[in-house]
Amino acid sequence: MRDAIDAHDFGRLFFLARKWAGISYNRMAEACDIKSSRVSELARGEGSITTLSKIEQIADALRIPGHMLRLARRPWEPSAHRTTERPASGDSRQLPVLSGARGDVYAEAIRETSRKLVALDNELNGLPIADMAVRAFRAVHRRLGDGDYETRYERDIQAAGAELAEIAGWALFNAGHFAASRRFNQEALFLAKLCGDHSTELLILQNMGMLAGWVGRSREELSIARSAIDREPLPPRIEAMFRAREAQGLAASGQNADASRSFGRARSLLQDSAPDDAPNWAWWVTETEIDRQEGRVLHETGQWEAAIPILQRAMERDSGAHVGYQNVASVRLLACLLDVRAWQAAEEESECLIPAVAEMSSVVTLELLAKTTRKGKGMTGAPPNLRDALHGIEEAIGGDPYAL
C-alpha cells in the first residue's frame, strides 16, 4: 500500500484496498466521487489519476495523510510539529536538501527530488525542469565521485542517482539540448549498470532510443529497441514501449509495413498488461502514447491522411496519464491538416493552440509548432482567416513570457 501511495498508483491502491480490507469498488467510488467503472478500470491498470483536486479527494476519502501523497497537511489531520526540513508553511513543492545526509536518508532525498521534478514536468503542459534536474544531479555526481557517503548504502545511492540522471537526460531532450541529453543518459546508464538497477536501465535505453530517432540516427534507435526486446522476456507494458520505439526506427528506415506491424504488436501487448506487471515509471505507456508516436511516424513519412484520425484519437482519449508534452499531438495534427489542405479544420486547430502556447515549455514542441506555422503561412491557397490564426500562434510563441 505504501509503495502504491508513494507512486500515486491509485489503481493499485484500490485493488489492494478491496483485496485486503474488503472495501468494494462501489464504496470507494462513492467516497472518492469517481465513477465505479472508472475505479474498476484503474484497478486493472488502465490509466491513472494525476489531477491535484482528485488526488486530494482520494486522500480525504481514504484518510491518507497528506505528506504520503506529497500534499499539504489535510484538514482532518491532527496538528503536530513537523520534524522535517520543510518550511513551516507546509509547502510540499520545495526540493529536498541534497547535502548533509550520507546514508539511506541521502538516497531517499535524491529519490524525493526525482519525484518532485517529475511532478513539475507534468504540471500544466510541462514546467521547465532541465536546469533544476542538472544542478541536482551535479551535486550527486560530485559526491559519488568523492565517496562522500556511507559505503554500505553505495548501491542504493547509485540507483537513486541513476534515476535522477535519467530525469535530467529527458528534461534536456525536451529543452532541445540534445548533446547534453546524450551525456546525461550515458551517465545514468553507467550508474544503473553499476548498481544492477535493470528497471531504470530499461527506461534509460528507451530515452536513448528516442533521442537517437529525433536527431536522425534511426538505425541506432532500432538497434536500441531490439537489444532490449531480444535480451530477455519483458513485462507486456515494457515490451510495448520498445515495440513502439522499434516501429519508429523501422519507419525512419523506410520499412513502413514492418513499422505498422510493430505498432499493432505494441497495442496488443498493452491489452495483455496487468496492473502490477511493470515498474511504476511505466505509467505513461498507454494507448494514447502509442497513438502519439504512430501519429508522429505517419506525419513525418508523409502519410498525412492516415495520421489525422490517430492524432485526433490521441487528443480525445482520456487515458488518465497526463504528460507535459501532450500538446505535441495537436501540433502534428495541425501540420497534417495543412498538408492535406483542410483549411477550415486547420484554422480551428490553430485557434485552439493559440492560448495553449503560453503553457508550453517543451522547446522541441514549440520549435515544431513554429516550423509548422511558417510553412502554413507560405502555402498557396491558404485563406486569410487561417493565415491570421497562424500569425496569432507566431505572436504567442514570440510574446513576453512574463506577461500576465
Topology:
Blueprint: H1 2-6, H2 10-21, H3 25-32, H4 36-43, H5 52-61, H6 104-121, H7 130-146, H8 154-174, H9 178-195, H10 198-214, H11 218-231, H12 236-252, H13 256-272, H14 287-300, H15 304-316, H16 328-339, H17 343-357, H18 363-377, H19 384-397
User: What gap, in angstroms, lies between the N and C termini?
Assistant: 42 Å
Biggest sheet character: none
- Helical fraction equals 55-70%
Quaternary structure classification? single chain
Based on CA inertia axes, which overall geometry fits? Answer: globular
Number of strands: 0
Q: Low-confidence runs (pLDDT<50, min 5 residues)?
A: 79-94
Question: What does this entry show, briefly?
Answer:
The chain is mainly alpha-helical and 404 residues long.
What does this structure look like?
The chain has 404 residues and is mainly alpha-helical. Helix content is 66%, strand content 0%. It has helices spanning 2-6, 10-21, 25-32, 36-43, 52-61, 104-121, 130-146, 154-174, 178-195, 198-214, 218-231, 236-252, 256-272, 287-300, 304-316, 328-339, 343-357, 363-377, 384-397. Helix 15 (304-316) runs antiparallel to helix 16 and helix 18 runs antiparallel to helix 19 (384-397). It starts with a helix and ends in a 7-residue tail after the last helix.
